[in-house]
Specification:
The chain is α/β, with parallel strands linked by helices. It has 10 helices and 13 strands. Strands 1, 2, 3, 4, 5, 6, 7, 8, 9, 10, 11, 12 and 13 form a 13-stranded mixed sheet that branches.
Length: 362
């Protein structure tokens, strides 16, 4: 059923090479999007006019969020900024919703020294951040305020980072940074479910910084200039998200991402935009022997994994390859007859973090 809704959503957006939905289906989705937009604007007004009030944490809060559903690189950018603030001597804690985690309430995923929770108890993004960022505490909870106060009581940080926090208006932010994919910053420009927009474009008035991710100067200069012209009062930054390392399991030795170049591999991933992963593999020179895509945050069943292994063997693949997020959802366990490569990516700013933004935070 999840796969059905995933494909239906792709059809409504007219993306990923899938045939667009028919006029009746598009009309129904447009009607739903209209009412969705009314609700989103009403919610924005309630907080804007302080009918509903956002709670404040004891130290500055920086939100890294998005306007569209999935694929802009929010979690890698949170990791990038955490390292940036760490390098400046700041104690950082990350607050995540913990999407798709089984545990309820506030969870301490990591105190920066030890990891206490793994998927499926907590979501894969929170776990990936905890594993990737020694010295950074990671907490999850539907209420980011409650999670932040728990982190504050355990070991007070000097800065909170919100992973995917732009829509979480219940918490006051000192800086809102919104990520937009350079290839398609606003998708088809329509609200859910007709398009990928979580909120109307006018809510970008709340953000101080816009960032084009997966930016390549030779491909995306037009998008950058258009964004600067449309939002002249915003700071517009650019960032790259690129493969960093690869590990081959069951041994798990870390190697450069280029180690997969020229290898015949079968790829699989459960992402909002699996085409980004596939394009990355092609650019790395992987010889793709097959591609399996699943809905975002898909929980792989043993039979699904075995089917892919058998398919890889029949097609002459020497191994399978997936993403670090998918690997986390698999409980980082691999006992199949073929090896599994896991590709890690990292985000990096393509210009120094502006001094005026730092002044706003501290």
């Amino acid at each position: 059923m999840k796969a059905y809704w995933h494909k239906l959503f792709e059809r409504l957006q007219g993306i990923e090479g899938v045939d667009p939905a028919g006029p009746v289906l598009r009309g129904a989705a447009a009607g739903l999007a209209f009412f969705y937009g009314l609700g989103a604007r009403a919610r924005w007004a309630l907080y804007h006019y302080k009918i509903l009030k956002a709670k404040r944490l004891p130290v500055p809060v920086v939100s890294v969020g998005g306007l569209t559903v999935g694929g802009a690189g929010k979690t890698p950018m949170v990791a990038c900024l955490a390292r940036l603030f760490q390098a400046q001597g700041k104690r950082v804690a990350i607050l995540s919703r913990g999407y798709r985690g089984l545990a309820r309430g506030v969870m301490r995923v990591s105190d920066g020294k030890q990891i206490y929770q793994k998927p499926p108890q907590v979501g894969e993004e929170a776990y990936w951040l905890a594993r990737s960022l020694p010295g950074v505490a990671v907490y999850t909870g539907a209420s980011r305020y409650a999670a932040g106060m728990a982190a504050w009581r355990d070991s007070p940080p000097e800065l909170f980072l919100l992973d995917d926090g732009f829509q979480h208006r219940q918490l006051h932010r000192d800086l809102d940074l919104v990520l937009l994919d350079a290839d398609s910053p606003f998708g088809n420009g329509r609200l859910l479910p007709r398009g990928p927009l979580r909120e109307p474009l006018e809510v970008l008035a709340l953000a101080q910084v816009l960032m084009l991710t997966r930016f390549a100067e030779e491909l995306h200069t037009r998008q950058l200039k258009a964004l600067q012209a449309t939002f002249p009062d915003k700071i517009v930054l650019t960032a790259a998200i690129s493969p960093a390392t690869a590990r081959c399991y069951p041994q798990g030795q870390e190697q450069p991402a280029s180690a997969v170049s020229g290898r015949p591999l079968l790829a699989f991933a459960g992402l909002a935009r699996p085409s980004v992963f596939i394009d990355t593999l092609i650019n790395l020179g992987v010889v793709l022997k097959g591609i399996y895509t699943f809905p975002d945050h898909h929980a792989f069943k043993p039979r699904e994994l075995q089917t892919m292994v058998e398919e890889a063997q029949s097609r002459g693949a020497e191994a399978l390859i997936t993403t670090a997020k998918d690997w986390a959802r698999m409980a980082e366990t691999w006992e199949a007859d073929l090896p599994l490569w896991v590709l890690e990516v990292e985000a990096r700013l393509l210009q120094p973090f502006p001094a005026e933004v730092m002044a706003r935070i501290f």
